[in-house]
Design a protein that fits this description.
Length: 517
Protein backbone atom coordinates (compact mmCIF):
# COMPACT_ATOMS: atom_id res chain seq x y z
CA UNK A 1 0.00 0.00 0.00
CA UNK A 2 1.29 3.46 -0.94
CA UNK A 3 0.33 6.02 1.66
CA UNK A 4 -0.07 9.77 1.37
CA UNK A 5 2.95 10.14 3.66
CA UNK A 6 5.06 8.05 1.27
CA UNK A 7 4.27 10.48 -1.56
CA UNK A 8 4.89 13.64 0.47
CA UNK A 9 8.13 15.43 -0.51
CA UNK A 10 10.45 16.65 2.23
CA UNK A 11 11.96 19.32 -0.02
CA UNK A 12 10.11 21.16 -2.79
CA UNK A 13 12.08 22.79 -5.60
CA UNK A 14 10.61 26.05 -6.87
CA UNK A 15 11.30 27.44 -10.31
CA UNK A 16 12.34 24.37 -12.28
CA UNK A 17 8.76 23.39 -13.19
CA UNK A 18 5.26 24.31 -12.02
CA UNK A 19 4.51 23.12 -8.53
CA UNK A 20 2.36 20.03 -8.12
CA UNK A 21 -0.69 20.06 -5.83
CA UNK A 22 1.06 17.65 -3.47
CA UNK A 23 4.02 20.04 -3.27
CA UNK A 24 1.76 22.84 -2.07
CA UNK A 25 0.14 20.60 0.54
CA UNK A 26 3.55 19.38 1.73
CA UNK A 27 4.88 22.90 2.30
CA UNK A 28 1.64 24.46 3.53
CA UNK A 29 0.42 21.74 5.85
CA UNK A 30 3.45 19.62 6.68
CA UNK A 31 6.33 22.10 6.73
CA UNK A 32 8.37 20.74 3.81
CA UNK A 33 11.41 22.85 2.98
CA UNK A 34 11.73 24.85 -0.24
CA UNK A 35 14.74 25.42 -2.44
CA UNK A 36 15.06 27.68 -5.48
CA UNK A 37 16.28 26.22 -8.76
CA UNK A 38 19.49 27.86 -9.98
CA UNK A 39 18.01 28.49 -13.42
CA UNK A 40 15.12 30.33 -11.79
CA UNK A 41 17.44 32.76 -10.02
CA UNK A 42 19.20 33.39 -13.34
CA UNK A 43 15.88 34.23 -15.01
CA UNK A 44 14.95 36.53 -12.16
CA UNK A 45 18.25 38.40 -12.41
CA UNK A 46 17.87 38.84 -16.17
CA UNK A 47 14.39 40.35 -15.99
CA UNK A 48 15.38 42.54 -13.06
CA UNK A 49 18.01 44.12 -15.28
CA UNK A 50 15.23 45.03 -17.73
CA UNK A 51 13.19 46.68 -14.98
CA UNK A 52 16.14 48.71 -13.77
CA UNK A 53 16.73 49.95 -17.31
CA UNK A 54 13.11 51.11 -17.56
CA UNK A 55 13.34 52.74 -14.15
CA UNK A 56 15.96 55.07 -15.60
CA UNK A 57 13.77 55.90 -18.62
CA UNK A 58 12.24 59.41 -18.45
CA UNK A 59 9.05 58.03 -20.03
CA UNK A 60 6.59 56.57 -17.46
CA UNK A 61 6.12 52.80 -17.17
CA UNK A 62 3.22 51.47 -15.12
CA UNK A 63 4.24 50.01 -11.78
CA UNK A 64 7.85 51.01 -12.29
CA UNK A 65 7.73 54.78 -12.41
CA UNK A 66 4.02 55.48 -11.89
CA UNK A 67 1.39 55.14 -9.21
CA UNK A 68 -1.02 52.22 -9.10
CA UNK A 69 -4.63 51.44 -9.94
CA UNK A 70 -6.58 54.65 -10.44
CA UNK A 71 -3.28 56.55 -9.99
CA UNK A 72 -1.57 54.76 -12.89
CA UNK A 73 -1.00 57.96 -14.86
CA UNK A 74 0.84 59.71 -12.02
CA UNK A 75 4.62 59.84 -12.67
CA UNK A 76 6.77 59.22 -9.58
CA UNK A 77 10.20 60.80 -9.40
CA UNK A 78 13.12 58.40 -8.78
CA UNK A 79 13.84 59.74 -5.30
CA UNK A 80 10.28 58.91 -4.17
CA UNK A 81 10.00 55.37 -5.49
CA UNK A 82 11.25 53.53 -2.42
CA UNK A 83 8.58 55.33 -0.43
CA UNK A 84 6.04 54.46 -3.15
CA UNK A 85 6.75 50.73 -2.80
CA UNK A 86 6.62 50.77 0.99
CA UNK A 87 3.46 52.89 1.00
CA UNK A 88 1.78 50.48 -1.39
CA UNK A 89 2.36 47.53 0.92
CA UNK A 90 1.49 49.36 4.13
CA UNK A 91 -1.74 50.76 2.74
CA UNK A 92 -2.83 47.48 1.17
CA UNK A 93 -2.13 45.40 4.29
CA UNK A 94 -5.66 46.27 5.35
CA UNK A 95 -7.09 42.92 6.35
CA UNK A 96 -9.44 42.68 9.30
CA UNK A 97 -11.09 39.95 11.33
CA UNK A 98 -9.81 36.64 12.69
CA UNK A 99 -6.42 35.22 11.72
CA UNK A 100 -6.32 33.01 8.67
CA UNK A 101 -5.05 29.47 9.27
CA UNK A 102 -1.30 28.85 9.14
CA UNK A 103 -1.56 26.36 6.29
CA UNK A 104 -3.44 28.86 4.14
CA UNK A 105 -0.84 31.57 4.71
CA UNK A 106 2.01 29.18 3.92
CA UNK A 107 0.27 28.15 0.69
CA UNK A 108 -0.13 31.83 -0.14
CA UNK A 109 3.58 32.47 0.49
CA UNK A 110 4.67 29.47 -1.56
CA UNK A 111 2.49 30.23 -4.56
CA UNK A 112 3.62 33.85 -4.69
CA UNK A 113 7.21 32.60 -4.45
CA UNK A 114 6.58 30.35 -7.44
CA UNK A 115 5.41 33.29 -9.54
CA UNK A 116 8.36 35.41 -8.46
CA UNK A 117 10.68 32.58 -9.51
CA UNK A 118 9.29 32.51 -13.07
CA UNK A 119 11.22 35.66 -13.94
CA UNK A 120 8.05 37.34 -15.22
CA UNK A 121 7.66 39.78 -12.32
CA UNK A 122 10.88 41.80 -12.40
CA UNK A 123 11.88 41.43 -8.75
CA UNK A 124 15.47 41.00 -7.57
CA UNK A 125 16.80 37.54 -6.67
CA UNK A 126 17.03 38.79 -3.09
CA UNK A 127 13.25 38.99 -2.91
CA UNK A 128 12.89 35.39 -4.06
CA UNK A 129 15.48 34.22 -1.55
CA UNK A 130 13.81 36.13 1.29
CA UNK A 131 10.42 34.54 0.63
CA UNK A 132 12.02 31.09 0.55
CA UNK A 133 13.90 31.86 3.75
CA UNK A 134 10.72 32.89 5.54
CA UNK A 135 9.01 29.65 4.60
CA UNK A 136 11.95 27.54 5.68
CA UNK A 137 12.20 29.38 9.00
CA UNK A 138 8.49 28.83 9.67
CA UNK A 139 7.75 32.57 9.68
CA UNK A 140 4.04 32.92 9.03
CA UNK A 141 2.70 36.46 8.64
CA UNK A 142 -0.60 37.14 10.37
CA UNK A 143 -3.21 37.50 7.63
CA UNK A 144 -6.76 38.55 8.43
CA UNK A 145 -10.00 36.96 7.24
CA UNK A 146 -11.48 39.90 5.34
CA UNK A 147 -9.95 42.28 2.82
CA UNK A 148 -9.67 40.50 -0.53
CA UNK A 149 -12.14 41.02 -3.38
CA UNK A 150 -10.25 38.50 -5.49
CA UNK A 151 -9.71 40.77 -8.46
CA UNK A 152 -6.29 42.45 -8.57
CA UNK A 153 -5.16 39.29 -6.90
CA UNK A 154 -5.61 38.67 -3.20
CA UNK A 155 -4.21 42.13 -2.53
CA UNK A 156 -4.71 42.49 1.21
CA UNK A 157 -3.60 38.97 2.20
CA UNK A 158 -0.53 39.15 -0.01
CA UNK A 159 0.27 42.61 1.35
CA UNK A 160 0.39 41.26 4.90
CA UNK A 161 2.99 38.75 3.72
CA UNK A 162 5.01 41.43 1.93
CA UNK A 163 4.80 43.68 4.99
CA UNK A 164 6.36 40.93 7.10
CA UNK A 165 9.15 40.54 4.54
CA UNK A 166 9.79 44.26 5.03
CA UNK A 167 10.20 43.61 8.76
CA UNK A 168 6.91 45.18 9.74
CA UNK A 169 3.79 43.83 11.40
CA UNK A 170 3.11 40.69 13.45
CA UNK A 171 3.99 37.13 12.47
CA UNK A 172 3.87 33.67 14.01
CA UNK A 173 7.21 31.97 14.46
CA UNK A 174 7.81 28.26 13.94
CA UNK A 175 6.46 27.51 17.43
CA UNK A 176 3.29 29.49 16.80
CA UNK A 177 4.19 32.39 19.06
CA UNK A 178 3.27 35.89 17.90
CA UNK A 179 6.37 38.06 17.45
CA UNK A 180 7.34 41.18 15.54
CA UNK A 181 8.40 40.50 11.97
CA UNK A 182 11.74 42.25 12.53
CA UNK A 183 12.61 39.90 15.38
CA UNK A 184 11.51 36.82 13.45
CA UNK A 185 13.61 37.79 10.43
CA UNK A 186 16.63 38.46 12.61
CA UNK A 187 16.28 35.09 14.32
CA UNK A 188 16.32 33.47 10.87
CA UNK A 189 19.33 35.55 9.75
CA UNK A 190 17.18 37.36 7.19
CA UNK A 191 17.31 41.10 6.55
CA UNK A 192 14.10 43.10 6.03
CA UNK A 193 13.47 43.87 2.38
CA UNK A 194 13.69 47.43 1.14
CA UNK A 195 11.48 47.22 -1.93
CA UNK A 196 12.55 48.81 -5.18
CA UNK A 197 10.74 49.64 -8.43
CA UNK A 198 8.04 47.19 -9.48
CA UNK A 199 8.56 44.90 -6.48
CA UNK A 200 5.57 46.04 -4.45
CA UNK A 201 3.14 45.20 -7.23
CA UNK A 202 4.91 41.91 -7.92
CA UNK A 203 4.37 40.79 -4.34
CA UNK A 204 0.61 41.40 -4.23
CA UNK A 205 -0.90 40.83 -7.69
CA UNK A 206 -1.90 37.17 -7.65
CA UNK A 207 -4.62 34.60 -7.06
CA UNK A 208 -2.38 32.79 -4.58
CA UNK A 209 -4.72 32.82 -1.59
CA UNK A 210 -7.75 31.44 -3.35
CA UNK A 211 -5.60 28.96 -5.30
CA UNK A 212 -3.89 27.76 -2.14
CA UNK A 213 -7.23 27.14 -0.47
CA UNK A 214 -8.50 25.37 -3.59
CA UNK A 215 -5.53 23.00 -3.59
CA UNK A 216 -5.94 22.21 0.11
CA UNK A 217 -9.65 21.62 -0.45
CA UNK A 218 -9.01 19.24 -3.34
CA UNK A 219 -6.60 17.28 -1.18
CA UNK A 220 -9.18 16.97 1.59
CA UNK A 221 -12.01 16.10 -0.79
CA UNK A 222 -10.02 13.21 -2.24
CA UNK A 223 -10.23 11.64 1.22
CA UNK A 224 -13.79 12.69 2.02
CA UNK A 225 -15.32 11.38 -1.20
CA UNK A 226 -13.80 7.95 -0.60
CA UNK A 227 -15.11 8.18 2.96
CA UNK A 228 -18.57 9.03 1.63
CA UNK A 229 -18.56 5.83 -0.44
CA UNK A 230 -17.50 3.83 2.62
CA UNK A 231 -20.14 5.43 4.83
CA UNK A 232 -22.82 4.74 2.21
CA UNK A 233 -21.75 1.10 2.00
CA UNK A 234 -21.98 0.77 5.79
CA UNK A 235 -25.47 2.29 5.70
CA UNK A 236 -26.61 0.03 2.87
CA UNK A 237 -25.30 -3.02 4.71
CA UNK A 238 -26.64 -2.14 8.16
CA UNK A 239 -30.07 -1.16 6.78
CA UNK A 240 -30.34 -4.45 4.86
CA UNK A 241 -30.11 -2.75 1.50
CA UNK A 242 -29.09 -4.45 -1.72
CA UNK A 243 -25.76 -4.20 -3.48
CA UNK A 244 -27.22 -5.46 -6.76
CA UNK A 245 -27.85 -1.91 -8.01
CA UNK A 246 -24.12 -1.18 -7.89
CA UNK A 247 -23.28 -3.86 -10.48
CA UNK A 248 -20.74 -2.74 -13.06
CA UNK A 249 -22.96 -3.47 -16.06
CA UNK A 250 -25.78 -1.36 -14.65
CA UNK A 251 -23.42 1.51 -13.92
CA UNK A 252 -21.93 1.27 -17.43
CA UNK A 253 -25.34 2.09 -18.91
CA UNK A 254 -24.67 5.63 -17.74
CA UNK A 255 -20.99 6.23 -18.50
CA UNK A 256 -20.29 8.98 -16.00
CA UNK A 257 -16.70 8.60 -14.82
CA UNK A 258 -17.13 9.57 -11.18
CA UNK A 259 -20.21 7.39 -10.82
CA UNK A 260 -18.29 4.32 -11.96
CA UNK A 261 -15.54 5.02 -9.39
CA UNK A 262 -18.00 5.39 -6.52
CA UNK A 263 -19.94 2.29 -7.54
CA UNK A 264 -16.72 0.29 -7.68
CA UNK A 265 -15.88 1.49 -4.17
CA UNK A 266 -19.30 0.43 -2.90
CA UNK A 267 -18.91 -3.01 -4.46
CA UNK A 268 -15.45 -3.40 -2.94
CA UNK A 269 -16.51 -2.31 0.53
CA UNK A 270 -19.61 -4.54 0.54
CA UNK A 271 -17.82 -7.59 -0.89
CA UNK A 272 -18.05 -10.71 1.25
CA UNK A 273 -20.65 -9.28 3.64
CA UNK A 274 -22.59 -11.95 5.56
CA UNK A 275 -25.26 -9.33 6.30
CA UNK A 276 -25.80 -8.61 2.60
CA UNK A 277 -25.81 -12.31 1.81
CA UNK A 278 -28.39 -12.99 4.53
CA UNK A 279 -31.23 -11.34 2.62
CA UNK A 280 -30.38 -12.00 -1.03
CA UNK A 281 -33.00 -14.75 -1.24
CA UNK A 282 -36.24 -13.21 -2.60
CA UNK A 283 -38.15 -15.34 -0.11
CA UNK A 284 -36.37 -13.52 2.71
CA UNK A 285 -36.37 -9.98 1.30
CA UNK A 286 -39.45 -8.78 -0.55
CA UNK A 287 -38.31 -5.17 -1.08
CA UNK A 288 -37.97 -4.24 -4.74
CA UNK A 289 -35.95 -1.03 -4.39
CA UNK A 290 -34.04 0.85 -1.71
CA UNK A 291 -34.57 4.53 -1.03
CA UNK A 292 -32.71 7.00 -3.21
CA UNK A 293 -30.21 7.95 -0.51
CA UNK A 294 -28.99 4.33 -0.56
CA UNK A 295 -29.58 3.31 -4.16
CA UNK A 296 -28.36 6.52 -5.80
CA UNK A 297 -25.23 7.00 -3.73
CA UNK A 298 -22.86 6.36 -6.69
CA UNK A 299 -24.75 8.82 -8.86
CA UNK A 300 -24.56 11.63 -6.30
CA UNK A 301 -21.06 10.86 -5.07
CA UNK A 302 -19.91 10.42 -8.66
CA UNK A 303 -21.22 13.83 -9.67
CA UNK A 304 -19.13 15.32 -6.87
CA UNK A 305 -16.10 13.38 -8.10
CA UNK A 306 -16.52 14.77 -11.60
CA UNK A 307 -16.83 18.27 -10.15
CA UNK A 308 -13.57 17.74 -8.25
CA UNK A 309 -11.87 16.55 -11.45
CA UNK A 310 -12.95 19.72 -13.24
CA UNK A 311 -11.65 21.82 -10.34
CA UNK A 312 -8.33 19.95 -10.51
CA UNK A 313 -8.01 20.90 -14.18
CA UNK A 314 -8.50 24.58 -13.39
CA UNK A 315 -6.10 24.37 -10.42
CA UNK A 316 -3.40 22.71 -12.52
CA UNK A 317 -3.63 25.48 -15.12
CA UNK A 318 -3.43 28.14 -12.42
CA UNK A 319 -0.38 26.41 -10.93
CA UNK A 320 1.32 26.84 -14.29
CA UNK A 321 0.49 30.56 -14.41
CA UNK A 322 2.68 33.58 -13.73
CA UNK A 323 0.12 36.11 -12.49
CA UNK A 324 1.27 39.70 -12.10
CA UNK A 325 0.50 43.15 -13.48
CA UNK A 326 2.42 44.46 -15.26
CA UNK A 327 4.26 41.35 -16.36
CA UNK A 328 7.63 40.85 -18.08
CA UNK A 329 7.12 38.82 -21.27
CA UNK A 330 9.57 36.30 -22.69
CA UNK A 331 10.71 38.83 -25.29
CA UNK A 332 11.33 41.51 -22.66
CA UNK A 333 8.19 43.64 -22.95
CA UNK A 334 6.54 45.08 -19.83
CA UNK A 335 2.80 44.73 -20.38
CA UNK A 336 -0.33 45.43 -18.37
CA UNK A 337 -2.88 42.63 -18.37
CA UNK A 338 -5.89 41.23 -16.53
CA UNK A 339 -4.58 37.80 -15.57
CA UNK A 340 -4.94 38.61 -11.86
CA UNK A 341 -8.73 38.34 -12.06
CA UNK A 342 -9.83 35.40 -9.95
CA UNK A 343 -12.91 34.28 -11.92
CA UNK A 344 -11.58 30.87 -13.08
CA UNK A 345 -10.66 29.86 -9.54
CA UNK A 346 -13.70 31.47 -7.93
CA UNK A 347 -16.14 29.55 -10.12
CA UNK A 348 -14.77 26.13 -9.22
CA UNK A 349 -14.56 27.03 -5.53
CA UNK A 350 -18.27 27.77 -5.64
CA UNK A 351 -18.97 24.65 -7.68
CA UNK A 352 -17.22 22.54 -5.05
CA UNK A 353 -19.26 24.14 -2.27
CA UNK A 354 -22.41 22.93 -4.05
CA UNK A 355 -21.04 19.40 -4.30
CA UNK A 356 -19.96 19.43 -0.64
CA UNK A 357 -23.45 20.44 0.48
CA UNK A 358 -25.09 17.71 -1.57
CA UNK A 359 -22.78 14.94 -0.37
CA UNK A 360 -23.49 15.96 3.21
CA UNK A 361 -27.20 16.13 2.48
CA UNK A 362 -27.46 12.57 1.16
CA UNK A 363 -25.27 11.31 4.02
CA UNK A 364 -27.57 12.88 6.63
CA UNK A 365 -30.57 11.20 4.96
CA UNK A 366 -28.90 7.80 5.25
CA UNK A 367 -28.19 8.48 8.92
CA UNK A 368 -31.78 9.47 9.54
CA UNK A 369 -33.07 6.25 7.98
CA UNK A 370 -30.95 4.17 10.34
CA UNK A 371 -32.57 5.86 13.35
CA UNK A 372 -36.19 5.50 12.22
CA UNK A 373 -37.73 2.11 13.09
CA UNK A 374 -40.25 2.54 10.28
CA UNK A 375 -37.43 2.55 7.72
CA UNK A 376 -34.43 0.79 9.31
CA UNK A 377 -35.75 -2.76 8.89
CA UNK A 378 -35.60 -4.08 12.40
CA UNK A 379 -33.24 -1.73 14.20
CA UNK A 380 -34.37 -0.18 17.50
CA UNK A 381 -35.57 3.45 17.49
CA UNK A 382 -32.57 5.80 17.38
CA UNK A 383 -30.40 2.71 17.95
CA UNK A 384 -31.13 3.20 21.65
CA UNK A 385 -30.19 0.59 24.27
CA UNK A 386 -33.38 0.87 26.34
CA UNK A 387 -36.06 2.50 24.25
CA UNK A 388 -37.89 5.17 26.19
CA UNK A 389 -35.10 5.62 28.71
CA UNK A 390 -32.23 6.11 26.26
CA UNK A 391 -32.18 8.52 23.30
CA UNK A 392 -29.42 6.68 21.45
CA UNK A 393 -28.10 8.66 18.50
CA UNK A 394 -31.15 10.88 18.13
CA UNK A 395 -29.31 14.14 18.68
CA UNK A 396 -26.32 13.12 16.58
CA UNK A 397 -28.72 13.31 13.63
CA UNK A 398 -29.80 16.77 14.82
CA UNK A 399 -26.16 17.85 14.65
CA UNK A 400 -25.81 16.48 11.12
CA UNK A 401 -29.03 18.19 10.07
CA UNK A 402 -27.87 21.51 11.48
CA UNK A 403 -24.57 21.26 9.62
CA UNK A 404 -26.29 20.33 6.36
CA UNK A 405 -28.56 23.33 6.68
CA UNK A 406 -25.51 25.58 7.02
CA UNK A 407 -23.76 23.90 4.11
CA UNK A 408 -26.73 24.70 1.90
CA UNK A 409 -26.36 28.36 2.81
CA UNK A 410 -22.61 28.18 2.12
CA UNK A 411 -23.38 26.70 -1.30
CA UNK A 412 -24.78 30.05 -2.44
CA UNK A 413 -22.05 31.20 -4.85
CA UNK A 414 -19.83 34.13 -3.97
CA UNK A 415 -18.58 34.56 -7.53
CA UNK A 416 -21.92 35.86 -8.82
CA UNK A 417 -21.39 38.93 -6.66
CA UNK A 418 -19.23 41.90 -7.53
CA UNK A 419 -18.66 45.25 -5.90
CA UNK A 420 -16.59 48.04 -7.49
CA UNK A 421 -13.43 49.42 -5.93
CA UNK A 422 -10.51 51.77 -6.64
CA UNK A 423 -12.68 54.65 -7.89
CA UNK A 424 -14.38 52.33 -10.41
CA UNK A 425 -11.07 51.25 -11.97
CA UNK A 426 -11.60 47.79 -10.50
CA UNK A 427 -15.29 47.69 -11.37
CA UNK A 428 -15.79 43.91 -11.57
CA UNK A 429 -14.28 41.57 -9.01
CA UNK A 430 -14.33 37.79 -8.52
CA UNK A 431 -14.90 37.36 -4.78
CA UNK A 432 -12.74 34.25 -5.10
CA UNK A 433 -11.21 34.66 -1.64
CA UNK A 434 -14.70 34.65 -0.11
CA UNK A 435 -15.60 31.56 -2.14
CA UNK A 436 -12.51 29.81 -0.79
CA UNK A 437 -13.20 30.79 2.81
CA UNK A 438 -16.72 29.36 2.77
CA UNK A 439 -15.55 26.19 1.03
CA UNK A 440 -13.09 25.56 3.88
CA UNK A 441 -15.95 25.77 6.37
CA UNK A 442 -18.02 23.51 4.14
CA UNK A 443 -15.34 20.82 4.04
CA UNK A 444 -15.10 20.84 7.82
CA UNK A 445 -18.86 20.39 8.00
CA UNK A 446 -18.84 17.54 5.48
CA UNK A 447 -16.23 15.65 7.51
CA UNK A 448 -18.47 15.93 10.57
CA UNK A 449 -21.61 14.79 8.78
CA UNK A 450 -19.79 11.77 7.32
CA UNK A 451 -18.38 10.97 10.76
CA UNK A 452 -21.90 10.92 12.21
CA UNK A 453 -22.99 8.52 9.48
CA UNK A 454 -19.99 6.26 10.13
CA UNK A 455 -20.63 6.32 13.88
CA UNK A 456 -24.33 5.53 13.32
CA UNK A 457 -23.70 2.78 10.80
CA UNK A 458 -21.07 1.18 13.03
CA UNK A 459 -23.58 0.92 15.87
CA UNK A 460 -26.24 -0.40 13.49
CA UNK A 461 -23.84 -3.11 12.28
CA UNK A 462 -23.23 -4.16 15.89
CA UNK A 463 -26.97 -4.41 16.43
CA UNK A 464 -27.27 -6.86 13.52
CA UNK A 465 -25.39 -9.50 15.57
CA UNK A 466 -25.05 -12.42 15.34
CA UNK A 467 -24.79 -11.48 11.66
CA UNK A 468 -21.36 -10.03 10.95
CA UNK A 469 -20.37 -7.19 8.58
CA UNK A 470 -18.08 -7.71 5.64
CA UNK A 471 -14.30 -7.51 5.94
CA UNK A 472 -14.07 -3.85 4.86
CA UNK A 473 -17.04 -2.50 6.79
CA UNK A 474 -16.02 -4.62 9.77
CA UNK A 475 -12.57 -3.05 9.67
CA UNK A 476 -14.12 0.42 9.85
CA UNK A 477 -16.44 -0.66 12.65
CA UNK A 478 -13.44 -1.97 14.58
CA UNK A 479 -11.57 1.28 13.96
CA UNK A 480 -14.50 3.27 15.32
CA UNK A 481 -14.51 1.05 18.39
CA UNK A 482 -10.98 2.20 19.21
CA UNK A 483 -12.37 5.67 19.97
CA UNK A 484 -16.09 5.12 20.65
CA UNK A 485 -17.83 2.30 22.50
CA UNK A 486 -20.53 0.22 20.87
CA UNK A 487 -24.22 -0.10 21.77
CA UNK A 488 -25.14 0.44 25.39
CA UNK A 489 -26.78 2.93 27.74
CA UNK A 490 -26.57 6.61 26.81
CA UNK A 491 -23.29 8.36 27.49
CA UNK A 492 -21.63 11.68 26.69
CA UNK A 493 -21.86 11.59 22.90
CA UNK A 494 -19.92 14.65 21.76
CA UNK A 495 -16.43 13.16 22.40
CA UNK A 496 -17.35 10.13 20.27
CA UNK A 497 -18.43 12.39 17.43
CA UNK A 498 -15.25 14.45 17.64
CA UNK A 499 -13.05 11.35 17.76
CA UNK A 500 -14.69 9.77 14.72
CA UNK A 501 -14.46 13.09 12.88
CA UNK A 502 -10.71 13.01 13.49
CA UNK A 503 -10.56 9.50 12.02
CA UNK A 504 -12.45 10.67 8.95
CA UNK A 505 -10.35 13.80 8.41
CA UNK A 506 -7.06 11.92 8.84
CA UNK A 507 -7.94 9.36 6.17
CA UNK A 508 -7.93 6.51 8.69
CA UNK A 509 -11.45 5.41 7.74
CA UNK A 510 -10.51 5.25 4.08
CA UNK A 511 -7.31 3.35 4.84
CA UNK A 512 -9.23 0.78 6.90
CA UNK A 513 -11.81 0.03 4.21
CA UNK A 514 -9.88 0.66 0.99
CA UNK A 515 -6.24 -0.12 1.87
CA UNK A 516 -5.21 -0.38 -1.77
CA UNK A 517 -6.70 3.01 -2.70
Amino acid sequence: MTTVTDLRPDVVTVGAAPLRPEDVVAVARHGAAVEIAAEALARVAATRALVEGLADDPDPHYGISTGFGALATTFIAPERRLQLQASLIRSHAAGTGPEVEREVVRALQLLRLQTLATGHTGVRPLVVETYAGMLNAGITPIVREYGSLGCSGDLAPLSHVALAAMGEGPVRDASGEQVDATDALAAASLSPLVLREKEGLALINGTDGMLGMLLLALHDLSVLLDTADIAAAMSVESQLGTDAVFAADLQALRPQVGQSVSAANLRAVLAGSPIVASHKDPAVCTRVQDAYSLRCSPQVHGAARDTVDHARTIASRELAAAVDNPVITDDGRVESNGNFHGAPVAYVLDFLAIAVADIASISERRTDRALDPARSHGLPPFLAHEVGVDSGLMIAQYAAAGIVSELKRLAVPASVDSIPSSAMQEDHVSMGWAAARKLRRGIDGLARVLAIEVLTAARALDLRAPLQPGPATGAVRDLVRTVADGPGPDRFLSPDMEAVTALVASGAVTAAALPAA
